């Protein structure tokens, strides 16, 4: 059997084993692992950018590649209500890579490191046939950690901001559509939403950053919380610019929001009593029934397609 | 300028910046970073295997790939006199990868994890054109950490065991030479030498695991300790089997020891007063003069070539 037959989620399930060390508070399956260290809690995550998959030098500058690699990890740390502190940068680079690329990459890495106060404490360099930027990030938990497994039936599903812009930007590039600079920028310069994450954390049951699309994040939360959800098509927040950009290339922006990903907003589930205290867009509800529905034009249909699969 | 012109070591120097957080006790440049966590110290390292560079499925089983990926990181943790605790596994896999490969890989990863008591707490999976296995490992410092920067003129340079076998094994495979199973096994099943590392740590000034060859490790130690060294050709320890294997393919086993790497013995510098307390082979001395010499047939020549360079 090949990986494109089994799929990413089943594969992760297959290789996951429960941790034995009791200092492992959260293992595989959330935005980051959580480890007890003396009185504190450390969160650790790793994420990878592969050339011509997660980025292309056709429309990313080297600096933007470095920035993206750091922001996507910072986003995972933020979704655990933690402060990013340290990072290790592991690179595969073809021997023909230019010094210009590496200098630009690190300019991007350090610019984000400086913004958030992160130290680059280590890494590795080796050669390969394609550029792979793999960053491990370590953060310090601020307090309560809103896990994916903690959603409760009745919770409101919140998006901390508009979705779909990054995928709209990608499609503008792919279709060589001029204009829409602001939408394209959302693709090449995604930002972690640390402040939004910290503000939400106090009031949420479950939280996750939106890297693989709303449908995928809701599915992750539901799978781990053993519940289901109804997402309301009309309520999916998409900016005017994104709608306009999607129309210009004949595509549906809400599908970008559902299945595209890389917006790095927070998807959180909030109990009714806290709803007035949080900022964000309500996009649906958590249900007891363990299925995920999309409510569109008054009809409720089960959501089959559920976000980006790396091996599909 | 391209990376093959600047070289790995200059590149690392170029991208390294001093850490700002005072909890970073050791940053880029040693076997692992060291971070203060409350009362303890955490060490963190990352290392990568790329298909057809660090391994090939022509002579590695998937399980051996997983084992190697874990052992080489464990070796770095050991060289810092630390206990390996947690690992994150970040994979790039072609979509056509078989489930059989992934199952075997994780069998190897978990077999080493179980041997040392390491928990796999996270990771990432994405697709790429070649298999990349990137492991981040976190350990807990046992006590004194023998840094690369701490060698002193007059120190004896020690290898904790025989060198050159892994590269001899690789060359046997490359030349399709039958026999020499034990030497080949050193290449496909390298082992971290944790016990040797812990035993040495107390008495060494500097220590490093031998991943890129004796010449490279001595050069690293000298560069960071601002000193030089004399390595004695006659004293470089190579097993009889390795000598025999090298001869059978018409190559010089001591060159494997000097420039080959992947033996994962410890290279340590030990002050005279502790020499009688350590087990290992004396291979040379640390000198005040900041040059590295090889003494061979009574002649002292400067060692120009200095180990594996990933971009050469």
Automatic annotation (TrEMBL), chains A, B:
Binding site for Mg(2+) 5: 212
Pathway(s) it belongs to: Cofactor biosynthesis; thiamine diphosphate biosynthesis; thiamine diphosphate from thiamine phosphate: step 1/1
EC number: 2.7.4.16
Molecular functions (GO terms): ATP binding; magnesium ion binding; thiamine-phosphate kinase activity
PurM-like N-terminal domain: residues covered: 29-140
Annotated positions binding Mg(2+) 4: 31, 45, 76
Protein's UniProt keywords contain Iron: no
Pfam families: AIRS (PF00586), AIRS_C (PF02769)
Binding positions (substrate): 54, 262, 308
InterPro entries recorded: PurM-like_C_dom (IPR010918), PurM-like_C_sf (IPR036676), PurM-like_N (IPR016188), PurM-like_N_sf (IPR036921), ThiL-like (IPR006283)
Protein keywords: ATP-binding, Kinase, Magnesium, Metal-binding, Nucleotide-binding, Thiamine biosynthesis, Transferase
One annotated GO biological process: thiamine diphosphate biosynthetic process
Residues of the PurM-like C-terminal domain: 152-294
Catalyzed reactions: thiamine phosphate + ATP = thiamine diphosphate + ADP
Residues annotated for Mg(2+) 1 binding in this entry: 47, 124
Enzyme class: transferase
Binding-site residues for Mg(2+) 3, renumbered to this chain: 31, 76, 209
Residues annotated for ATP binding in this entry: 106, 123-124, 148, 211
Binding-site positions, Mg(2+) 2: 47, 76
Miscellaneous field: Reaction mechanism of ThiL seems to utilize a direct, inline transfer of the gamma-phosphate of ATP to TMP rather than a phosphorylated enzyme intermediate.
Family to which this protein belongs: Belongs to the thiamine-monophosphate kinase family.
General function of this protein: Catalyzes the ATP-dependent phosphorylation of thiamine-monophosphate (TMP) to form thiamine-pyrophosphate (TPP), the active form of vitamin B1.
Classification via PANTHER family: THIAMINE-MONOPHOSPHATE KINASE
Protein name from the UniProt record: Thiamine-monophosphate kinase
Provenance organism: Candidatus Iainarchaeum sp
